[in-house]
Amino acid sequence: MNILVCGGAGFIGSTFVRQRLHEHGDEVTVLDKLTYAGREQNFHDFADDPAFRFVHGAIEDPEAVASALDGLDGLDGLDGLDGVDGGNGGVRARASGPVEAIVNFAAETHVDRSIAEPDAFVKTHALGTYVLLEAARERDLRYVQVSTDEVYGSIEVGTFTESSPLQPSSPYSATKTGADLLVQSYFHTYGLPATIVRGSNNYGPYQYPEKLIPLMVLNALHGDALPVYGDGQQVRNWIHSTDFARAIGHVLAHGAPGEVYNAGGPDEQPNIDVVHRIIALTGASEDQIEHVTDRPGHDRRYSLSSEKVRALGWEPSVRFEDGLAETVTWYRENAWWWEPIRSGDYRSYYERQYGKALS
Ligand SMILES: NC(=O)c1ccc[n+]([C@@H]2O[C@H](COP(=O)([O-])OP(=O)(O)OC[C@H]3O[C@@H](n4cnc5c(N)ncnc54)[C@H](O)[C@@H]3O)[C@@H](O)[C@H]2O)c1
Q1: Is 148 in the pocket of ligand 1 (CB under 6 A)?
Q2: 261: annotated active-site residue
Q3: For the residues of 20-34, what is the DSSP string, one character each?
Q4: From edge to edge, which strands make up the β-sheet containing 235-240?
Q5: What pLDDT was estimated at residue 77?
Q6: Distance set, CA 25 to CA 57, 70, 242 (Å)
Q7: Nearest to residue 223, comparing CAs of 284, 155, 139?
Q8: Catalytic annotation on 354?
Q9: Which DSSP symbol is given to 97?
């Protein structure tokens, strides 16, 4: 297939691109704004693949979207990723055939940042999704929206199915919900062949260290405090990013237009247990744990039923215990990836968020 992957420079998007290039032989164009979370380093092992093309631009910019979908004649390919600059002209090479599908990962993804500064969340999720849907409608493309279990809100017992009510509780999840509803409206109103995949909490290599698991792994390895929100009893349904990326590919290939598919991981864990496991895997000390004021409106538990996507033939293959150990090893062995983050703007974000400096 020839696919436009929006947000493909991020954690899960780049995992998806890697699978499509290496396991499916697809042609992939990435459109990405390269926010603090979008990184050219995530292309390191496929940047030179002739089937890969990168356009630097925002999904809310119709010209950037058109460039990414239609290709730009007369532009030189870039020498290397260092040459990628702003605007919508950062084109590496031309895709050979027309794009057949858009898969949209592009998002602001950190709940804490959505509480502090919600504006980018509204712009990217509402306006950005609208621009992509219009582009898909004009060109008759398949469309997959990557969404989250957070649109259902919190559940004390039981598990969410695709028909559970949508009760988002943060600006992040509320704007993701709005995007999902817009996608569904394009199916109902215009017949756009669109599907939605809602994932549970992802972990794995290439995840920006503001998120729980890489934050704890890197702080543990550096002897920094391990800041645990409240009592740490918030339960999350963990899915490895390679499993989630495969679920999205599965829905792209086999999903029915207009349908929503949940893709949850095989294991649930309270956050505090995740931290204890990371301490054991890194040789850090329990004394590094520091309970900090809980996030406002923090959801207590997420849990997803994935029966519908399992019926299409997908199932998660990585158990949390194994995936977490591999993830810790990856962070240990790939300091080239996280060192520039930990020595850059992330430090001031961390200080604002947790009121103390990293070592
Ligand atoms: N991480 C999780 O646990 C999780 C779980 C379920 C669903 N999701 C969803 O999966 C998707 C990817 O999440 P992630 O964890 O890889 O996020 P991420 O923050 O690592 O990456 C997001 C990417 O989107 C890009 N981006 C942001 N705004 C953009 C814009 N306006 N135009 C173009 N590009 C833009 C960023 O530069 C970055 O490359 C998101 O839609 C998220 O809601 C994530």
Answers
A1: yes
A2: no
A3: HHHHH--EEEEEE--
A4: 201-203, 235-240, 267-270
A5: 36
A6: 25, 20, 17
A7: 284
A8: no
A9: S
The pLDDT value recorded for residue 71 is 81
Q: Does residue 59 line the site of ligand 1, with CB under 6 A?
A: yes
Alpha-carbon torsion (44, 58, 70, 147), positive or negative:
positive
**Whole-Å CA distances, 76 to 33, 49, 85, 89, 101:** 20, 16, 13, 10, 25
pLDDT for the residue numbered 82: 41
| Cβ pair 89, 123 in contact under 8 A | no
- Give the residue ranges of the chain where pLDDT is below 70: 72-96
What pLDDT is stored for residue 96 in this prediction? Answer: 61
Compute the distance from residue 277 Cα to the ligand 1 centre, in Å: 26
Beta strands (DSSP E) in 230-343 are 235-240, 260-263, 267-270, 289-292
Grouping H, G, I as helix, E, B as strand and the rest as coil, residue 359 is coil
Helix or strand holding residue 103 (H, E): strand 101-104
**Joined tokens for residue 265:** 């991981």
Rounded Cα distance, 293 and 353, in Å: 11
- Name residue 27's beta-bridge partners: 2
Q: Is ligand 1 within 6 A of the CB of residue 13?
A: yes
Ligand 1 near 183 CB (within 6 A): no
Q: Is 191 helix (H, G, I), strand (E, B) or coil?
A: coil
Measured distance CA(69)–CA(102) in Å, rounded: 9
**In the numeric block, which tokens belong to residue 78?**
């870039």
